[in-house]
TrEMBL record:
Residue ranges of every copy of the ABC transmembrane type-1 domain listed in the record: 83-274
Keyword list, A-Z: Cell membrane, Membrane, Transmembrane, Transmembrane helix, Transport
Pfam family, one: BPD_transp_1
Membrane topology (UniProt): Multi-pass membrane protein
Name of the protein described by the UniProt record: Carbohydrate ABC transporter permease
Highest taxon of source: Bacteria
Localization in the cell: Cell membrane
InterPro entries, sorted: BP-dep_ABC_trans_perm, MetI-like, MetI-like_sf
Family membership noted in the UniProt record: Belongs to the binding-protein-dependent transport system permease family.
Record-annotated membrane-spanning stretches: 24-45, 87-109, 116-139, 151-170, 253-274
Gene source species: Salinactinospora qingdaonensis
Taxonomic path: Bacteria, Bacillati, Actinomycetota, Actinomycetes, Streptosporangiales
Length: 289
């Protein structure tokens, strides 16, 4: 009771100071947490600009005053083809994922499909399968049909993970699209495919961008399928290229860190450009429109 009375006796200025102090405390805590999370990224960039002999100096060099771009030159010359390979595979996975997942999600969300709920459960179970089990199974099949060391094989392998996730994501989003829109199109004489392309796809733009971005990031960062389904004779994605580079260049740390920086740039740019679509796409299915 005494505490309540004291709180009521505080002046508006005192209450304002308490609010400001709490805001500063929250901001300081947020900056501290963000600094811890971003420190590995900062050190990766810092190490990529330092000569290899300075990385082991004590005390450590926190700012690359005498920096060098030799690591980036080495990374581009040795890892450039791997980056191109990852771009080809990732864009292929995005294409396959959207072509298959969007119509499937439309059917599950807007149409009365028999066995729709069991199919959703199957898609959820697929997400729980260990990656090594899927990689070993796909290797046995792809080796027989000649898809090992093949772009199509790697695209299909990564799509086995991206497509189920995209279907579940887009299904949730398309549930929020009012059925009146598709019903009005049907009344006007549009078929299911015309309704899908002319009505559902335009209003599902945010969800499609989100699904495509996740498919790109999943395939770009994939290592298990990449190392299982490639032998290095014809091509290797950047994840496997970094893995081989670590084994062959244990003393060239600035080149290794430069390779990691280059591999992180495409994903970071895509996330920055598509962040507002991702936010809308992830939360779009949570509220009925």
């Amino acid at each position: 009771m005494a505490t309540t009375s004291a709180a009521r006796r505080r002046t508006p200025a005192a209450r304002r100071n308490i609010v400001v102090n709490r805001s500063w405390l929250k901001s300081a805590l947020g900056v501290a947490i963000l600094s811890v999370l971003l420190f590995p990224l900062y050190w990766m960039v810092n190490a990529s600009l330092l000569p290899s002999d300075e990385l082991l100096r004590q005390p450590p060099v926190w700012f690359p005053i005498n920096g060098t771009l030799a690591g980036y030159a080495s990374a581009i010359s040795t890892q450039g083809p791997h980056l191109v390979t990852s771009f080809i595979v990732s864009f292929g996975v995005v294409t396959v994922t959207l072509v298959l997942a969007a119509p499937a999600a439309y059917a599950l969300a807007q149409l009365r499909v028999r066995g729709g709920i069991p199919l959703v459960l199957v898609l959820l179970v697929v997400q729980m399968l260990p990656g090594i089990v899927m990689a070993n199974s796909l290797y046995g099949v792809f080796n027989q049909v000649g898809l090992v060391d093949n772009y199509i094989g790697l695209i299909l392998a990564d799509s086995t993970l991206a497509v189920p996730f995209a279907i579940l994501l887009l299904r949730t989003f398309m549930h929020g699209v009012p059925r009146e829109l598709s019903e009005a199109a049907r009344v006007d004489g549009a078929g299911y495919w015309r309704t899908f392309w002319s009505v559902i796809v335009p209003v599902s733009r945010n969800g499609l961008i989100t699904a495509g971005l996740f498919a790109f990031l999943l395939s770009w960062a994939d290592f298990l399928f990449a190392v299982t389904l490639t032998t290095g004779r014809s091509f290797e994605p950047i994840t496997v290229g970094i893995y081989r580079f670590v084994g062959n260049q244990t003393t060239n740390w600035n080149g290794l860190m430069a390779t990691a920086v280059l591999a992180s740039i495409p994903a970071a740019i895509l996330l920055i450009l598509a962040q507002r679509y991702v936010a809308a796409g992830v939360t779009g299915g949570a509220v009925k429109q």
